[in-house]
Amino acid sequence: MPVQHVSSDSKRNVESCDPVWTALRAEAEAAMQAEPALGSFIFATVLSHHRLEDAVCHRLARRLDNADVDVHLISQRFLQVLEKRPELGAVIRADLAAVRDRDPACQRFLEPLLFFKGFHALTAHRFAHELWLLGHRDFAYFLQSLGSQFFGVDIHPAAHFGKGIMLDHATGFVVGETAVIGDNCSFLHSVTLGGSGKETGDRHPKIGNNVLVGAGAKILGNISVGNCSRVAAGSVVLASVPHNTTVAGVPAKVVGPAGCSEPSRNMDQGLTPEDCGCGSKADGGA
């Protein structure tokens, strides 16, 4: 068969295909029509930019506006991080999609970008984490302190998060230095991933993939929470949690299986397997 050559225009069209950004711009245009009083804000945040990364940097820098460092310098530092870590754009899209998929109060990509401090706090941490890895530790700590001040969230810059994370409400979310969080996890407010005692070194929890952690749960020490597990609201977890299980109580104990393959997407916090279906919002789930 003859080799088919793809034109450079076609290549550019494929490369520029960004369904999240396309949907977000359409949502912004509709929002401007519905709420003219917010028109200049929505235009400046979304429609004046050519890509999602620029819109995120703009919005986040303004949410972190403070008297110590000029907002434009903060935005510039975010863009510098993206130049060195362009893969961060895909992670931010996965986080946006996670909120859109899992939060029944979220009907558009526009809402977390403009308003949801859980998404803002997580994104601020992602920039702080990359700056930490790049050796800019004072600026990373500065972003951590701003995140605590403005969002009520305190995440050490060294803590590692996978992609597709949702912080629902986020207020009171605390994560220690050596914590590691896998992909596609969901956390409600007032969750602590902390240490136990005054030990140094690797001392914080390791959370697997697809884990749901309920409001007010405390997971303490260098322990693991297995993939596709659930931690019930208000639990205090002091020992490692097996894969595919639900734990509850103070101290937390295994109360049964997780009940579905993706607890973090289902967002069901019932304690019995029968309470936990596995649908997403799109197919009638939570």
Verbal overview:
This protein is α/β, with parallel strands linked by helices and 286 residues long. The protein folds into two domains: 18-152, serine acetyltransferase, domain 1; 159-286, 3 Solenoid (UDP N-Acetylglucosamine Acyltransferase, domain 1), CATH 2.160.10. Helices cover 40% and strands 13% of the residues. The protein has ten helices and 15 strands. The chain has helices at 8-15, 19-34, 39-47, 52-63, 71-84, 88-102, 110-114, 117-133, 137-151, 263-266; strands spanning 154-155, 160-161, 166-167, 174-175, 180-181, 186-187, 192-194, 206-207, 212-213, 218-220, 224-225, 230-231, 236-237, 245-248, 253-257. Strands 3-6-9-12-14-15 form a six-stranded mixed β-sheet. A hairpin with a 4-residue loop joins strand 14 and strand 15 (253-257). The longest helix has 17 residues, at 117-133. The radius of gyration is 20 Å and the shape is globular. The protein starts with 7 loop residues before the first helix and ends in a 20-residue tail after the last helix.
Short summary:
By secondary structure, the protein is of the alpha/beta class. The protein contains 10 helices and 15 strands. The chain starts with 7 loop residues before the first helix and ends in a 20-residue tail after the last helix.
